[in-house]
Design brief:
This protein is mainly α and about 250 residues long. The chain has one domain. It has nine helices and two strands; from the N terminus they run H-E-H-H-H-H-H-H-H-H-E. Strands 1-2 form a two-stranded parallel sheet. The two termini are about 40 Å apart.
């Protein structure tokens, strides 16, 4: 009798799991990565335009662009990303093809920043619009990072770095992400005050991002895990499989 109840409970659980998977939407990782390149670069540019401070990660290449304006904001982005890729390789003591692909993705991201920068410059700046630019930019970036973490493909180095560091250190993603953001914020403040003698790219929004981006990304990741199954379009898994990491 007990064995029958256990078997019935097992079957019921399996049926529930199957129903949950069947109710989810399927999204190719390749398409997800393309979406990330477009929306994350847009989010960065929207926050820069708001004047309330850029995202903490992007504040580092932003301040370098102010110090050395001969190179564009987008160019400084993939220089910074190259440094992150090299750091991960050194820590892992291995040459990873995934990181090389990630670097190529980072170049595409930098180019998209220059594209968005050009057309956003045509939009007006008022206090109400600046608040809207910042809010939209922050939410877009949070969602974009969550999407990148789940796309099952090598992603932008600035997103790869905290994700892989959480695995290397065996720490929850949201804590590693927050620490990384605070380190970027500190670097920007030192360069901005020490060289430019003022605050450039840093504002109340930047400080806010440093403390809540990790939690926001984790929230979006939970929503994605509940509603979307990511798969590789080139080599699709034989069984539906939810892509994800501990957050």
């Amino acid at each position: 009798m007990y064995a029958v109840k256990v078997y019935e409970a097992y079957i019921t659980t399996r049926l529930k799991e199957k129903r949950i998977i069947m109710n989810k939407k399927y999204l190719p990782g390749e398409l997800a990565l393309c979406i990330v390149l477009i929306i994350n670069s847009l989010g960065v540019c929207l926050m820069a335009k708001s004047g309330f401070g850029i995202s903490t990660i992007s504040s580092v290449p932003f301040v370098f662009n102010k110090v050395f304006p001969a190179l564009s904001f987008g160019t400084w982005n993939y220089i910074f990303q190259t440094m992150l890729v090299l750091t991960l390789m050194i820590l892992k003591k291995a040459f990873c093809f995934e990181y090389i692909f990630s670097f190529v993705v980072g170049i595409g991201f930098g180019k998209m920043i220059d594209v968005h920068d050009a057309w956003l410059a045509l939009l007006p700046n008022t206090m109400a619009l600046n608040v809207l630019y910042f809010a939209l930019g922050f939410l877009i970036i949070g969602f974009g990072i969550a999407l990148a973490n789940r796309c099952m493909l090598p992603i932008i180095p600035t997103d790869t770095f905290p994700r892989d560091m959480s695995e290397i250190l065996n720490k929850p993603y949201k804590y590693v992400k927050t620490t990384f953001d605070l380190c970027c914020l500190t670097t920007t403040l030192v360069l901005s005050i020490g060289i430019l003698h003022g605050l450039h790219g840093v504002g109340i929004g930047t400080v806010l991002c440093a403390f809540i981006t990790g939690k926001t990304v984790s929230m979006f990741q939970k929503v994605l895990d509940d509603h979307v199954v990511f798969y590789r379009a080139v080599i699709r898994p034989t069984k539906p499989e939810i892509s994800g990491r501990t957050v």
